[in-house]
Amino acid sequence: MSSGLALASSPQVQQGLPHIVTPESVVQSVVGEAGTGATIRPGTGNLGRRQDKVQRRRQFDDGRQRSQQSTRPGSPTGDNTDADDAEHPRILLSARGEKVYVGSSAAISFLQFLRRLLRHYGGQSAFTESRTRHHMLENTVQESYGEFEDFLDHAERVALIRCFYASTSGFLCMFSDEEITHLLGVYEGTKTSLDVGHNRGIKQDDLASLYLVLAIGARCRGSNESDKRVASTFFAQGQQITFRDMLHDPTISMVTNFILMSFYMFASSRRNTGLLYLGVASKAATILGLHVMELNKGLRPETARRRVSAWKSLRTLDVQCNAILGRPSSTPHVASETWRGGVGEKPTHRSLAVNANFDLSLLMEPISQKLTKQAALDLDAAETHLQKLRAWAKSLPEPLRQSIRKARRDVPTYVHLEHTIGNIHVACAYYFGVMLVTRHFLIATLTPKLKQSDPSRLEDLREAGGTEKTTELSNVCVEAAVHLVQMCADALDRDLLLDNMCILQAWVFAASLVLGFSQLVASDEYHQDAPQAFLNSLRVVERFSSLSAQSQRNHEILTSFSSAIDAYHAKREREKASAGNPYLEQIIRPVESSMPSNAQDGLEMGGDGQASSMQMGPGVDMGAAPMGDFGDFNAWPEMQNGFLVPQMNDEIGFQLFWDGYSPPLPAGMQMQNDDMSMAPWT
């Protein structure tokens, strides 16, 4: 049976995208052949049953199946695997060794593509050979310091509350200033040590909320050891109160407290735990009907405001954070028209920022869902989403569009900090959404340019895809990354960032990978500020690395990425020099020792990009098989029946959109679980 239809009939090519063999396209190809007269004969064993299953599926949904079956590219038999295999683009190991899922649109998937690409074209380096690529970084939560004790004075509590407001600006708007003032009064009138068995009720829920607010403020400020103690102690106490009756009667306070606990976990580099808490909050919110706007009619204004603000905060955080890891959101989908407008109170900058991010999440969710299912958007869909995103951006109120600048004398510093960070969070969420829509167009445009030494092959790839519109959207991706990083760098230079900004650093990391990728081609092909923006991204991530283990890891990755980019360009320059003058032939070439050294990070690189000497340190096993010559294998997929057929499998039997571009490993070399990598909070 042929592996696919004619190239001209491919929907990707009709939309201007290169056709890459994916699980969906293989199934559609089999169905298409059957529909044009080909006969699928029932076979024996698993292969025959699976072929029959594909044929029955075609009859059931009229040829519109999407990733319900998958085929391992490169498999000799082309057997269809179980449908569940196509739902796990990346499987990583948690801190306890449990397998966890990271979606195809996550930055970690893009990072893996870049590692394979640079391993081939630039040789092995610290960037391509990550020792911790099998594990997802999950920091250990610091234990509380013994029995709970109140050791804060009023001024310190107020300072931590202000830090909480700044760090969550643009995401959370669950407390008005009046409510916080009331909670603080309750707190200061309460005993320093709680009797867990008595005095249950709303007062305890309010105290739990305040403890969590103080814990987040201390975690994000982190100026000294005292802040760490406050963070762990108050979080443990707030968590204890929240867990006490959480399964008995869901309340608005329970939803609020689980949202607060999730944000604390994000700030502690515990992303899986944070998303788990969001899932609990989402289910409780659904039980309470917070997602149904009509239920708020007839309620007291304050009650309605609490319900709406809790739902908007939950929805915003859920969509944005799950999109970073390529996971589906846990909150139910709601019609966007139902939720337009404010939260039933006098507009403040805090509510404006949350409303804007909430409206953006309504646009982001379908983008994230589509990318989870099919890994790439066609041109028409991408343009439609970009137009909606831009219309949202153009409708932003003026207070959210202020440039990054120092505070005026008549504005308190803490107020200006909260407003600035809220504006940055709103703008970065938009730029991140644009990058999600356009990143695969950047891959489709840029990757063929890395093989310019083979003009005939390059021309084939250009014919398979790559239009002016594709190039234009790839430029949009880079420009969005430039804007995101430059804005954060401006805030850094004016000391308008906190030391721990868990979600912002994930956006900056995703933008950094895009900017670094664009540096692999001539600098004049993309935004002129892209090189400097890439360097600025390292400064921004480094700022967060003192308090965030995830940011520290991201900074290490970006530093090694920068070195790998330099090594790639050095290798290309040597290749150009070795080509020589077309009128002169070099008969005897100099020995390697007299050539410029390309050693980097403990890896000596041979002239062909192969690691001639490896010093990876103890505990790193690169396998006993001899290393193959990078020049002995074909870097690009072969053309078969009009398709680009990838030659490399991933660990679970299928490939992402960009895996079709990824060069295979050299003969004899096996990288264990290459798709399992340190997952940046991305």
From TrEMBL:
Coiled coil: none annotated. Residues 207-331 form the Xylanolytic transcriptional activator regulatory domain. Residues 34-86 are annotated as: Disordered. It comes from the Eukaryota. Pfam families: Fungal_trans. GO terms for cellular component: nucleus. One of its GO terms (biological process) is positive regulation of transcription from RNA polymerase II promoter by galactose. Residues 49-65 have a biased composition (Basic and acidic residues). Residues 71-80 have a biased composition (Polar residues). Keywords: Nucleus, Transcription, Transcription regulation. GO terms for molecular function: DNA-binding transcription factor activity, RNA polymerase II-specific; RNA polymerase II cis-regulatory region sequence-specific DNA binding; zinc ion binding. This is Xylanolytic transcriptional activator regulatory domain-containing protein. It comes from Sarocladium strictum.
